[in-house]
Predict the 3D structure of the following.
Amino acid sequence: MAQIVGKNGVIKSGSTAIGEIRSFSIDETCDTSETTSMGDSARTFSATLTSFSGSIDAYLDFADSGQDTLTVGSSLTANFFPDGDTSGNVKLTGSIIVTGVSKSEAMDGIAEVSFSFQGSGALTEGTA
């Protein structure tokens, strides 16, 4: 299996690249419902609904049009390219709602911003 180098990652809001990305994470989960019946000797479960959420960390850039699309409450289509957006590379796509924006700055560092989001619908995997 080929290793993915983190420095190649790209995120786009629609077709607009989000600049100054440092890292991102996507968490996928699946709810379950218990299906255990009387007489069973062990609990059983069935998968029900899936969901995803995550965060994007970047250096703050007020002039970046991609970062400008990530305002609290905004809904958009996000495209995540873990190994870059070169044709044939993996692309994860989903509708997201931006649920939080956190800006931070230290006197000996570079201003940063963190965007949190909740997926709405399925996260799909395709290729660039």
Q: What stands out?
A: The chain has a mean pLDDT of 96. The radius of gyration is 18 Å. Strands lie at 10-13, 16-17, 21-34, 45-59, 75-81, 90-104, 112-127. Residues 65-68 form the longest helix (4 residues).
